[in-house]
User: Fold this.
Amino acid sequence: MDLKTLCELNGASGHEKAVRKAIVEAARPLCDDVHIDRMGNVIAFKKGKGDGSKHLQFSAHMDEIGFIIIDATEDGLLQFRPIGGIDPRVAVSKYVVVGEKEIKGVIGALAIHLQTAEDRKRVLGFDNLYIDIGAKTRDEALADCPRGCYAYFDSAYQEFGDGFVVAKALDDRVGCYTMLRLLQDEFDADITCAFVTQEEVGLRGATGAAFATDADTVIVLEGTTAGDMGDVPKAQRVCEPGLGIVVSFMDRATIANREVYRQMMELAEKKGIPHQIKRGATGGNDAGAYQRRKEGKRTCVLSVPCRYIHGPSSVVKLSDVEAQYQLAKAFAEQY
Assistant:
């Protein structure tokens, strides 16, 4: 399965069904066992060529940011709230699809001509944004898009420039794509790949997946915020697309295992895999759940730098996606 197919599937936190189905179909021919747990995580196990004494786990999350419908106005505009961290400034005037029928809509706000001087000084919150699906009444809008249904940015996957790609859901379909590639390889160690749910709303799927295996080491494959835009000071450019895979030593949820972190850096140098250290301790990801559950897991995070993350048009460089795969593979080969 290619990255384009994965990104164009819709699967916000708690509604990863379409992504899960595609991943199960792709993983089953490659694995000894694939099952779905109660949180909707896909746990894919592949027996290694060794004696079974070594077991390594990879993890990436299937869910993306999105929206959920909470009501409609009397004149047929849908009211909604974000799922995951979304800046309302990136939502205005964007195309969306809503509900199981994927009804086309657009996120609208009060036109600038009608805004007061005070309105123009503040960021309009989600209370002031609506999804217009062309309905005339509240009943008509909710008949097609009932309360609790999901909405997604309607963004195409496109390659552009010097090896870049723009799409929704790159966070974290890049990690899912890398794990499907790893399942095509053969290793001495047993390998479990956990495609987990609900990362964007609190690492919920990984909290359960931490109990799924006896692996003592989990490598989390992620996307992370690139800071190489405009006049951002160099010290705040925590990572940059095109410089390789990002190896994190710490974030707000995790401190990387020192031995695993050292091994990753040494392997990247030895194999000539483009890499960079995340120059900051911001954000958090599923490694935080794995490190705190059961007896604890040795964790390290390999992230693809992503511009405009958590928006309709995120950007990564494909060479960084390749570097994520190459370093994850090298680690599994020597594990």
